[in-house]
Amino acid sequence: MPGIVLVAMITSVAYSARGFSGLTLFSPMILAVVAGMIYSNVLGMPAHAKAGIAFSQKRLLRFAIVLLGFQLTLGQVAGIGLGGVGIVAGTLGATFLFTVTLGRLIGVDAKLAQLIAAGTSICGASAIVATNIVTDARDEDVTYAVAAITLFGTIAMLGFPLLAPVFALDQHAFGLWAGASIHEVAQVIGAGFQNGTLSGETATVAKLTRVAMLAPMVVALGLMARRGGADASGAKPPMPWFVAAFVAVVALNSLVAIPAQIHSAIALAAQIMLTMGLAAMGLQADISELRSRGLRPLLLAFSAFIFIGCFSLMLVKFA
After folding, report:
1. Which of 47, 223, 277, 317 is the most buried (most CB within 10 A)?
2. pLDDT of 169
3. How far is CA 188 from the centre of its chain?
C-alpha cells in the first residue's frame, strides 16, 4: 500500500502540473515519469514502497493496455478504407524494421532499440510499456524510450500541421498522414483537429488502427524472443494474456453498443493507470544509468521520427 500511495501522489502531481504555463503540451504520462525520476533521485527510494511500485509498474500497466481496446472498433478501422489500412500497416512495419536495423548498426542495445521502434511505429508510451512485457528491458531503458518518443511526438504535433499546405495535403490526406506517423494518440488528435474536423476524425481512426496493431506486433516479438535461444523455462509465452484480452475487448466493443459515458470513464481509467505505471517506472529509474546511454539512442529515436514522417507522407501522396 505505501508504494501504491506514493505512485498515486506522483500521478496527481503529473495531472496538476499540466495547469502550469509551458507544461500543457506534455501528456500526464511523461510528466509522471519525470516527477518519479526527480523524487527517487533526489529523495531516494523508500524500501517499504518497492512492492507497491512494482505492482503499479506491472499489473496496472497490463490492465490499462487491455482497456485501450475500448477505444477501437472494427468499424472504425473500415472507415479509412483498405488503402488507409495498408498505409498504416506498411508504415508501421517499415518503421519498426528500420529502427531495429539502424539500432543494430549504430550500437544501440537491442532491447532499447525495440522499445524505441515500438513507441515510434505504434502508439508511443503505451506501445513501449506493452512491448517491454515481452522484451523485459531495464526500467531505465523504458524511461529513456518514453522520454525520447514523447519529445519527437510533441515536435510532430506542433510542426506537422504547418506542413499541410507545403505538401498540398487536403484534410483527409493530412489526417491519414498524422494518424500514420505521429506517436501518441493525444498528439495525433491535437495535430489532426488543428487542420479541421474531417482531418481530425481521419487522423483519430488511422491512429486507433495503429493501436489495434499493437497486439499482433507483441505476439510477433514474443515468437522472435522464443526463437532467439531463450531456454524453455525462461521463455516468454508467444501470446501474453494482456494481448489476448486486448483483442477480445476490441471485438466486444465492435459487437456491443457501450454507452458514451461508460466509454469516457474507461478511457479516463486507462489513462490514469498508464500514468501510474509510468510514474512507477520513473521512481525506479537511475539518472546515472540514463546518462550512460549516451547520444546514440537519442539519434536512433530522431532517425525513426524522420523516417516514419517521410515514409508515411510518401505513401499518402503516391500510393
Report:
1. 277
2. 92
3. 12
Per-residue model confidence (pLDDT) at position 94? 95
How many residues belong to the chain? 319
Q: What pLDDT score was predicted for residue 181?
A: 93
Q: Identify the domain containing residue 77 by its residue range.
A: 2-318
CA 207/CA 315 separation, integer angstroms: 16
Q: Give the DSSP per-residue string, the chain.
A: -HHHHHHHHHHHHHHHHTTSTT-TTS-HHHHHHHHHHHHHHHT---GGGHHHHHHIIIIIHHHHHHHGGGG--HHHHHHTHHHHHHHHHHHHHHHHHHHHHHHHHHT--HHHHHHHHHIIIIIHHHHHHHHHHHH---HHHHHHHHHHHHHHHHHHHHHHHHHTTTTT--HHHHHHHHHHH-SSHHHHHHHHHTT-HHHHHHHHHHHHHHHHTHHHHHHHHHHHHHHTT--TTTPPPSS-HHHHHHHHHHHHHHHS---HHHHHHHHHHHHHHHHHHHHHHHHT--HHHHHHT-SHHHHHHHHHHHHHHHHHHHHHHH-
What is the pTM assigned to this prediction? 0.69
pLDDT score for 97:
94
CA distance 263 to 253: 10
Q: Which of 218, 258, 274 is nearest to 73 (CA)?
A: 258
Q: How far is CA 250 from CA 11, 149, 219, 238, in A?
A: 27, 25, 16, 20
Instruction: State the sign of the Cα–Cα–Cα–Cα dihedral 3, 288, 277, 137.
Output: negative
Give the chain's domain count. Answer: 1
The radius of gyration computed from the CA coordinates of the chain, to the nearest angstrom, equals: 19
